[in-house]
From TrEMBL, chains A, B:
It holds the Pfam family UTRA. Residues 15-83 form the HTH gntR-type domain. CDD domains: WHTH_GntR. Keywords: DNA-binding, Transcription, Transcription regulation. It comes from Teichococcus globiformis. This is GntR family transcriptional regulator. It comes from the Bacteria.
Length: 247, 247
DNA sequence: AAGTGGTCTAGACCACGAC
DNA sequence: TCGTGGTCTAGACCACTTA
């Protein structure tokens, strides 16, 4: 069933055609018609279905590709992005060792509880104070040593029934969210500062209280731009650096 | 004089045409034929001169625009990017106040000397140990308070005769480099960590030695991808945050 | 009114991947 | 071999800026 992009009646939507195409395609992905890993119709097929030229479809697909919503490969086709440990880390894990190389990371879940949103969590997640949330505490081992203590808060309305067992957890959180809860994280905002280690963090990392740590507050958003997670990471930067490229 | 993009003899350059166009245009900008602020020929003119279609020129220009080398405006034309305090800050100054708003910043030059490159400086700048460099120390006031102490090292071969007087300095360093030394910074890499304040920094910021500070090491590259500056910034994050977007 | 970049089309050919 | 996305062309019309 072709989507009516340009009805006979005068078009009030003044946005460029390729923006509208982009939104239609994104809608199908967000709505679950095309789940992660699904192969999209070919460009000529999409063009015919939507009643636009292949060039317009291409421009829309290029935008979605830049936002990592889809992946295109010559000869193979276009698929909805699927998180895996590589892409999840490349996009959302900025730590490198002192030589600039990627880091081997292991994750230990300390605890996972249900709770109510504190004011700062509610503000970050765009929900109301007291709304149900899940709390997750994790320790990350970088190259074998405990270097990061993370306190994560997830909006329970977006990931109902969330829960992971304590102990080592091999999977990246965002891969797990996609596979187990059908929630795809697409972007995040981080605010960085320096702080002395608090008691809980100091114990988790085996450092004295007050040790200077890199504190990262992250808010993660899904494909539909909903805030899913707010996370406070306390990072021991003795042997690692948080890498940023400005261009 | 048209540039021969596709000679009669078989073309060995297998790169796409638009990449070659991109390189030609970038070459004219780097070479100084088109200085910052200069208006480029129109797309049809470039297409005719280079012997390609306007669509190919457009794709090359789009790439350069994404890299902030040029700026395009409908009806007005395309110009070579010129640093000003707005763009310089938007790209290279990541600090926000606790509400996420931009910050009013003043710069005080503490000292400016000539010197020889230490090993770590030489490694960062891609020069040899002992090569001539300029050292610059600055204090930044954010919203009126001293919050950042910066130690900058510039490669003297790229900015010969560099020098700024001590005291307040209204201009952004990269704007000054472009206007006074014809060097345009286009991108930078930053490595972030947490560290206790050393004696020099503690005095500059009026904080006790050992106060946790955000330490940022930046390497700045010009349009020709040469390392121009390495900078160590010590930042008091009591009332400010370093903002990063991951997408 | 003239000229610029922005959008959109229709069609050609090529490089790559899967069968 | 076939279908995919990648490149390239030629030309139309539109929206914006400047004069």
């Amino acid at each position: 069933m072709p989507t009516a992009l340009r009805p006979a009646s005068p078009q009030l939507d003044a946005r460029p055609l390729y923006r509208q195409v982009e939104e239609i395609l994104l809608g199908r992905i967000v709505g679950g018609d095309w789940p992660p890993g699904h192969a999209l119709p070919s460009e000529p097929e999409l063009a015919a279905e939507l009643g636009v030229s292949q060039g317009t479809v291409r421009k829309a697909l290029t935008e979605l590709e830049l936002r990592h919503v889809i992946e295109r490969r010559q000869g193979r086709g276009t698929t909805v992005s699927r998180h895996n440990s590589e892409t999840a880390r490349r996009h959302f894990f900025r730590l490198r060792d002192l030589s600039g190389s990627a880091v081997i990371s292991r994750i230990i879940v300390v605890s996972c509880d249900e709770g109510r949103a504190e004011p700062w969590e509610a503000a970050a997640l765009g929900i109301r104070e007291g709304d149900p949330v899940h709390h997750l505490r994790r320790i990350r081992l970088l190259d074998g040593s405990p270097r990061i203590f993370e306190r994560c808060t997830l909006s329970a309305t977006l990931v109902p029934g969330f829960g992971v067992p304590p102990g080592e957890f091999a999977q990246e959180l965002y891969v797990y969210l996609q596979q187990a809860h059908n929630v795809t994280i697409r972007r995040a905002e981080e605010d960085l500062s320096a702080a002395g280690a608090d008691a809980e963090t100091a114990e988790a990392l085996g450092k004295p209280v007050g040790t200077p740590l890199l504190m990262v507050q992250r808010i993660a958003y899904d494909v539909a731009n909903r805030a899913v997670e707010v996370r406070l990471s306390m990072i021991d930067t003795e042997r690692h650096r948080y890498a940023v490229r400005l261009d």
